[in-house]
């Protein structure tokens, strides 16, 4: 369907199937499969290094420092520190040497809403606090404990692993989102973890608008042993997805990860194009895409709610990945999204290293955001 599609084969990695991936509990199901073809990479070693410098930051290329430093929970707490500090300082300011009365409850509600937790969650927290405590003194640490408890209750139902169904050959995952959320990087990280768990992986460079995105995916293919299907800049994304589906099925691949161009949710033409990609994928397999993951940038705050609404309607989003939680004061938006949409949250990103994308754990997130 797309005559100019480039098939970018990775070099062989004989020990790939023996590695134990760090995201095993995110990527479930399936039997370790044979490493894909042994054809040499289309890019020379020097060219590969040069493109790597341009499109993949050094922290992707060598994340040994992050492996040695803090555990995941420590990195999550560090990443959410701006959000948690804002909440903790506000709670301390409101409740130090004060009774729990109507005024303090109103101030607390305002604080929680300003932290992007959402009106529903804010009201739940204040309701719990009033039970048996109204007109009595309450310590800030008790308020933070209730905050962690109620946030966990909201998030636990949506904390679900991204399960790969072995019967799907391939299991197709389509990545969607607005510009700059980190879709291509997230695909690369997931590809690496799939490969380390013995999956035979194919990547489709469906962001045909950006040469850098295509090059970046090729580098990830070289690193992970995944085959990359890519076309020329400006080529038809739906045609490329069709070709990738055919190749993945004939090659008995376990997983096909399809990148798409970033698009604003209010641009009708671009959203129509995304719908076309979904339709074309279904021509090869009526059950595909098996997952449609919306990659959200935590720093966008309230706008993320609108993104979820529109992409769910237009592309059939089945789950979420939230990136850039490190350094944002708006991490609470994930709670509001969970309360409103109840979509599965599969993973969080708190940095640029491969290990900085991890399965979503509701309890850990709640403790981190409440400074517990």
Could you explain the architecture of this structure?
It is a single chain. The chain is α/β, with parallel strands linked by helices and 372 residues long. It has one domain: P-loop containing nucleotide triphosphate hydrolases (Rossmann fold). Helices cover 47% and strands 12% of the residues. The chain has 15 helices and eleven strands. Strands 1-6-5-7-4-8-9-10-11 form a nine-stranded mixed beta sheet, with helices on both faces. The chain has a two-stranded parallel ribbon with strand order 2-3. Strand 5 (201-204), helix 10 (211-224) and strand 6 form a beta-alpha-beta unit. The longest helix is centred in the C-terminal third of the chain and has 17 residues, at 268-284. The protein starts with 5 loop residues before the first strand and ends with a helix. Mean pLDDT is 83; it is low at 12-23 and 29-69.
End-to-end CA span? 54 Å
CATH topology: Rossmann fold
CATH superfamily: P-loop containing nucleotide triphosphate hydrolases
What is the residue-averaged pLDDT? 83
Major sheet details: 9 strands, mixed
Q: How many domains in all? A: 1
Q: What would CATH call the architecture?
A: 3-Layer(aba) Sandwich
Radius of gyration (Å): 22 Å
User: So what's the CATH class?
Assistant: Alpha Beta
Helix count from the secondary structure assignment? 15
β-strand number: 11
Q: What share of the residues does DSSP label as strand, in percent?
A: 5-15%
Which of globular, elongated, flat, extended, rod-shaped describes the shape?
A: elongated
Helix content: 40-55%
Supply the helix-strand structural class.
alpha/beta
Helix-strand topology string:
EEHHHHHHHHEEHEHEHEHEHEHEEH
